[in-house]
Each structure stands twice: as C-alpha cells, then as structure tokens.
Write a structure and sequence with these properties.
Layout: H1 2-8, H2 11-49, E1 69-79, E2 84-93, E3 98-101, H3 104-108, E4 115-117, E5 123-125, H4 128-138, E6 158-163, E7 170-174, H5 177-195, H6 205-219, H7 233-253, H8 261-339, H9 343-379, H10 385-392, H11 399-406, H12 417-420, H13 427-456, H14 462-512, H15 533-558, H16 578-581, H17 589-593, H18 611-619, E8 623-626, H19 649-661, H20 685-690, E9 735-736, E10 742-743
Parallel strand pairs: 1-8
Antiparallel strand pairs: 1-2, 1-7, 2-3, 3-4, 5-6, 6-7, 9-10
C-alpha cells in the first residue's frame, strides 16, 4: 500500500488535490454564507407566524434512549493487511457506530476497539457478484475476465460488504444465512441512522446547508435528487468535493495503474480512500471555521431581523410579485404540460408501499402489546411488568422486529417517471419514510408507556391491569391512526415537491435564469443578507405547482385511500391532559418495577449488593438484540410453551378476551415478550457462586460499570477510526512487507 500511495500520490499531486479541494470548498462556502442569513430570517419568521400544522396526538420521547447496545455478536472480517479473515466481537451501541473488538475478552477488559465504522453513505451488498460489478464499473477497463481470480474471495456463501464510492470498503462474512439476515438488518439500520446525520432540530444551520448544497449543484447544471446527501455536514461536503475531484483523478491515474485487473482495482480503492481522507480533513477545517464566523455574526443579524421584520417581509413580497409577473405565464404552461398529468401516478407509487409500511408498524405494535398482556395474565400480574415494558420501550430500535415494516418500502418504483424527472434513485424517499416509521413507532410506544404508568399508580388488580392495557392500547391506536395520516400526507407533499421542483427549475432555466440578476436592484442593501433573488424565484416556482400537489393529496384523503384522513378531520384537544404527563421525568421501568421480586422469591440482584451497585447494574448496557440462539415463546421459528401463537389481529383479540374470562393456572414456563434473546433467570445467592460470570453486555467487571460506555462513532465518512491505547488521535501510516502486502 505504501508504494502505491507514494507512487501515485506524491507531494506534487497531493498539493494539486489540496488546491483543487480548496477551490471547490471556497465556492460552496460562499453559497453557505448566503443561505445562512436567509435560513435565519425564515426561522425567526416561522417562530412568530407559525405554520398551523395539526397538533400531534401521540407523545414524543424528549429524553432519547441511550446506554443501550442495539446488537452484539461475532462476525468474520477480512483483514487487508495480511489478506486473512479474522473473527471479531462486534457491537452496535445506541449511536449506531459499528464497533469492532479483537475478541470478547478485549471488550471485557476495555481494550480500545480495533475500529469504529460510521456507515453514512455506504451500501450493503450480500453477494460477491454485486461487489465485483460495482468495483469493475468504478474503474473502466478492469472488469475481471472469466476464469481470472477476483479481487476478493469469501470463505462462506454469506458475505456482507460495506461499499462506498470513495472511501474504503469493509468485508464481513457469516456462517449461516440466518446470521447474514440479522446482520444485514442491523447494518442497514446503522446506515439509515448515520445517513440522517443533520439534526432535525437544527432550524438554521441545517436548512442553510442543504439549500447551499442544492444551489451549488444547480450552478453546475446538476438538478434532481442527490444520492450522496448522506451523513453530517462534513461528510456531505466531502462527498460533494469527491463528486468533482474523483472523475478527474480517475482519468489521470487509471492509465498509470499497473498489474492485473483485480490488482488495479485494489490500487484504485486504496488511492480513492487516501484522497477521501485528505479531502475530509480539509473540508472539516474549512467548514468549522466558516460556521464559527457565522455564529459570531448571528446575534447582530438577529437584532436586525427583529427590528426590521415587517420591512423585510414587505420588501420580499414586493420582489416576489415582480418575479411572479415575469415567470408565471411560462411556469404555468410548463406545469400544465409536463408536471400536472404525472402527479397522480407519482402519488400512487408513493402511497402504496408507504401506507403498507405504516400499517405494518401498527400491527407490530399491536402484537407486541397484546403478547405482553397475555404474559401478564399467565404470570400473575405486575411482577414482571417492568421486564416486559423495558423491552417494549425499545421496540422502535429493534432492527429485526422493525424489519418487516422497513421492507414494505423496498418495492417503491417510479417506473418511467424516474428518468423523466431526473430522479437518480428512490433510496432517499425509502429512507425518509422508514425514519418516519421508526419515529411513529417510538411515539406510540412512549404514549402507551406514559398512560400505563399513570394507570399503575391506582394499584390495579391483575384483571383490572389487563383490561386497562387493552383499553390503553385501543386509545393509542386511534391516536396513531391520526398521526400516521398526518405524517404520510406531509411526506407525500414533500416527496412530490422534491421530485417536481428540480425538474421545473431545469425546464425554466434557459429562458428565466439569465433574467434574474436584474431583480437584484429591488432589494434594499440593508436586507440583502436575508432576501436572495434565487431563493425568491424558487419559492415562486414552488407556488405554481403546490396547489396541484395539495389538491392531489386532498383528493386521496377524501377518497380514504390507504386510510388517509381528510384535512377537515382535526382532533383538537382530544386528550388535553396527556401532554402534561410527558413533562415528568423519564420512566425507568427496570428501576420502578424490575427490582426485588419478593413475591416470586427470585431477587433481581444479590441481596448483599449495595444501592449504588444496583444503580450501576440498572444503567448497564443491555443488548436490545443478542446474537444468541434461544427458543422463546411468541418468537418466529420456535415452539411456544402454550398453544400456537396467534398471528392475526382478530385471533389475538379473541385469545386475550378468552384469557381475561378464564381463571386458569399459568403454564409451566414463562411467556416472554417476543424478545429475540432469552434473558437468563436472575441467580439466587446459592447458584451465583457456581454459575459462570454474566455476559459483559449485561454486567461489567467489578468497579468498571460506571466507566464503561460505548465508544462514539467517528464522524468520518471513511468509516474507520482506530483508537490508540494512550488516547491520542490515530496516526495512519503505511508500510509494505517483503511480500508486497500493504499494511495500514
């Protein structure tokens, strides 16, 4: 590897890359500074005027779940330094950075991990053929001929490869197809989370950045959706630079690469990754410097906006009226001929898979709560309610249980329309809908938790508790149906705008864009930071098509397509005291209801344990999903201890009603809440001495619990951050041994 980089990335070329990167960054950051003032004005105006969106019926979790491990287990990783496969202990903490340890012992001893992978911008490939095709396409003239050795050989039939167009690739394999499916669902969840790297609550910096990206690309005649709008600002900015720099380097260096096709492919991957790292560091420094400058100037800008808000609004409306008079005739013809006829078909293509996914979310939530209710009946009341609710509270972050919901979006296609409207990929819409599904699932679960916690304060009996659970479930489902309809309608409107607006701007650009500079004189110089001609022009174009989009979504709701509610159906103050309940402290089910089980005779911790030790164990990282083979009731593929687990909603309701009426003794074994891993029974004092130590994911080494926290993922798009034992930043060096194997 050292020879490859020193040969093709010498000092002169590195200097050229730095200069080229600096030029692209300077041009982009000029757009960003312009958009920052506009976004600040829009944010402050929104605070004053509001938007009139329907009030959500479900509560949302203000304190997110943390200190949880989403998944843990072993997988094989290909080591590029020695070209061998090694078994790694891997886990995914709540921040969704895949952490790789040498082995489980290294994790127990808190040895720094070998790597932390931030998967933003990556794709998961489940076959070598897919990977070899992408690698072959990335470097023209290197497609492997039949019979030649491929760039990579997998020892099993179940690989998982993380592929990125610019950064390094990661190679894993599993022993069984079931393991492959599990890890694929988990890694896809990591990608989905990391891709959504710009915080939702960023009301100024986030919109300014995404608008600047769009404006910059449109200045290069690049319209439509962009597949690499993934990760945080620095990652996206690095992707933007590589979009221009990558093809230039490829054209220059590809003819100079030596060796067989697979060797040239390997060399290009190494070069591209090294360039990406250089670009990332330069982009990070430049972006942070500009952001700091803007944040220093923000108080003065806010003072100007507060003082002159009315004048700025008047000036902007005057500018918009002039632009509207100029472009409206052309825009209306363009909308009527090229957009309006296709809106219903685009909307239908979006509605079908999205609504199926939200229906699946509803069904999964119903089944999990009903299973829990059955288990409460069979196990004698609230004794294990804390354990069940602790698992239910994490349902939205359970990759495997949510997978059936996410999969509903996979069939999304815009056949024929994708080329017409220059939509490079539907992945951006799939991912956005899946994020909405997870949010709505968590809102439903949290609302159920809050209402049940209030009910438990009344000290209900077992029968009263089960009836209350069923009543609360139906109450939450009604709220979910309303919020689901509102969220989907908003998603459809945003998706239709995201598809049609770039198309319209591209169509109108030849006749309208060159005339825009003459409108600049209509803006007062004092307001020039808050009103831009280009943004106002786009708003006018948006208004020409918005009425058709709103009408299409409204008609779908009037016809009750896919269980959408009409806009006139508003649930104002249907539960006026509900939002007051969410103001309290977060509910700790394990602490309140999972403590000493005096009635059952099995203490959850040894009686000699101190209060502080109990607290440490209660807060200890617990896997939501554990990669262990265990048969559990109500788990697909296992034989339940009671009669066959029902699947349909009707069967579940019938069985629940039957169990409430019948006073039958509990079954011989416990019925758990459909978890994917079996929690071992709490040890007694006698059995603890002879039993093996608890898994480190459940119980840390003595005295280490308070210090043991999951490592935070690197925000680098390259994906890997190798920790140094002394805590210093990693230094990437390259060497080559006598056999010519590159080592990093």
């Amino acid at each position: 590897m050292g020879d490859v980089l020193s040969t093709h990335l010498d000092d002169a070329r590195r200097q050229h890359i730095a200069e080229r990167t600096g030029k692209i960054l300077t041009e982009f950051l000029r757009f960003y500074e312009d958009q920052y003032g506009v976004a600040l004005f829009n944010s402050m105006r929104h605070e004053i005027e509001g938007t009139g969106l329907p009030q959500a019926q479900l509560l949302w979790r203000k304190v997110p779940l943390d200190e949880r491990i989403i998944f843990s287990g072993n997988l094989f990783q290909y080591q590029e330094d020695n070209k061998k496969w090694r078994n790694r202990f891997s886990l995914v903490p709540h921040n969704y950075g895949l952490v790789l340890y040498e082995n489980k012992v290294a994790y127990e001893r808190q040895v720094p991990p070998r790597a932390i992978i931030n998967s933003a911008g990556y794709k998961i490939l489940t076959s070598l053929d897919q990977y070899l095709e992408l690698v072959g396409n990335s470097l023209p003239g290197t497609s492997s001929k039949s019979g030649t050795a491929p760039i990579l050989k997998c020892p099993t039939q179940f690989p998982l490869i993380l592929w990125h167009p610019s950064a390094r690739h990661y190679y894993f394999c599993m022993m069984t197809e079931a393991e492959q499916d599990k890890w694929q669902a988990v890694l896809q969840d990591c990608i989905r989370h990391c891709n959504n790297g710009i915080p939702e609550n960023s009301k100024v910096e986030g919109p300014a950045f995404t608008d600047a990206i769009r404006m910059y690309r449109q200045s290069k005649e690049l319209y439509g959706t962009w597949e690499m709008l993934c990760g945080n600002e620095v990652q996206i900015l690095s992707n933007l630079v590589m979009e221009e720099l990558g093809p230039e380097l490829k054209a220059e260096l590809a003819p100079r690469l030596k060796g067989k096709p697979q060797e040239r492919q390997r060399q290009w991957i190494q070069i591209s990754d090294a360039v990406y790292r250089m670009v990332y560091e330069q982009a990070k420094a430049r972006f942070e410097a500009v952001l700091a400058k803007l944040q220093l100037a923000r108080p003065a800008m806010e003072a100007t906006i507060r003082t002159d808000m009315d004048q700025i609004i008047t000036s902007k409306e005057h500018l918009a009226s002039k632009i509207r008079a100029f472009i409206l005739p052309k825009a209306e013809v363009c909308v009527r001929n090229h957009v309006q006829p296709y809106i219903p078909s685009i909307l239908e293509a979006l509605m079908v898979p999205t609504s199926q996914g939200f229906t699946e979310v509803r069904d999964v939530f119903f089944k999990e709560v009903t299973d829990m209710n059955l288990n409460v009946i069979n196990e004698g009341g609230a004794d294990k309610l804390g354990e069940y609710m602790e698992k239910l509270s994490q349902l939205a972050y359970h990759p495997l249980k949510m997978q059936s919901c996410y999969e509903k979006m996979e069939p999304l296609r815009l056949d024929g329309l994708q080329q017409r409207f220059d939509v490079s990929s539907t992945a951006v819409f799939k991912q956005r809908a899946q994020i909405h599904m997870r949010e709505q699932m968590d809102n439903a679960v949290y609302t159920f938790e809050t209402l049940l916690h209030q009910e438990l304060g009344k000290g209900p009996t077992k029968e009263e508790l089960c009836k209350s659970i069923q009543r609360i479930l139906e109450r939450v489902l009604k709220k979910y149906d309303y919020d689901s309809s509102s969220v989907r309608k908003r998603f459809f409107r945003e998706a239709l705008l995201q598809i049609t607006i770039p198309f319209l701007l591209k169509k109108l650009a030849p006749t309208c864009k060159s005339e825009l500079p003459r409108f600049q004189e209509l803006i007062f110089e004092d307001f020039a930071r808050f009103i831009l001609v280009e943004n106002t022009y786009e708003e006018v174009v948006l208004q020409t098509v918005m009425k058709d989009i709103l009408q299409a979504v409204k008609e779908a709701a009037v016809q009750r397509k896919h269980n959408l509610y009409r806009d006139s159906m508003v649930m104002h103050n249907s539960d006026p005291n509900l939002h007051l309940l969410a103001e309290g402290a977060p509910i700790d089910w394990g602490e309140e209801y999972g403590g000493s089980m005096g009635d059952s005779g099995s203490p959850s911790v040894p009686e000699a344990a101190t209060h502080s030790e109990k607290r440490r164990r209660a807060k200890q990282v617990v896997s939501v999903v554990q990669d262990e083979e265990a048969e559990l009731p109500f788990e697909a593929g296992s034989e339940p201890l009671s009669p066959a687990s029902p699947d349909s909603v009707t069967e579940l309701r019938g069985l629940l009603a039957q169990d409430l009426r019948a006073e039958s003794p509990p079954p011989a074994g416990p019925l758990l809440n459909g978890a994917l891993s079996q929690e071992s029974p709490q040890p007694t004092a006698a059995s603890e001495a002879s039993s093996p130590p608890a898994s480190p994911l459940r119980q840390p080494p003595p005295g280490k619990a308070a210090d043991l926290e999951p490592p935070k993922p690197s925000d680098q798009e390259t994906g890997e951050q190798v920790s140094s034992p002394d805590g210093c930043p990693p230094i990437h060096t390259t060497t080559e041994d006598s056999a010519g194997v590159q080592t990093e």
